[in-house]
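ingest -> validate -> predict -> emit
validate: passed (alphabet ok, no gaps, 154 aa)
predict: started
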Amino acid sequence: MLRGLPLFNAKNIGEAGLFLQTPIKYKKNQKLEFTITVDEKIKPIYITGKVVWTAKKENHPYMYPGVGIKFEEISDKNKEDLKKFLKKRLKGYKEAKEMKSMYFKLKDMAAKLVILEEKHPTASKFKKIIDKAVSEIDDAAHTIDREIIEVRKI
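emit:
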């Protein structure tokens, strides 16, 4: 049995298991013991699982090297903590995607105002306001992108 898997490379974590991108060669059906820290306020979640598949370079080049792990033993309390963590991350992901969509709509609006500037005198004032807003939220938009990428890794 192994302890302390390097879960900073965990991908696609769910209630039933996870994919672990790792150069360590695990064998199919190999039993593993590990902990997952989902929140500093909550004790790490202790889990036992087994390797159910291994990524092959020729079949899964974007996942190679790595293994799919099915959770086998997890206490009810730990299962509940994991569910809360996943639900929180999913909610954050949905909100981040919605904000990203709003950001792109705002940028699109600014582009359309360029055309309207020639036809309507108020359009240039409106465009300046939109341009300022886009400029002010550019950093936040990049932070949202990083958050979306991090959640996809899970």
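The first helix runs from residue 76 to 117.
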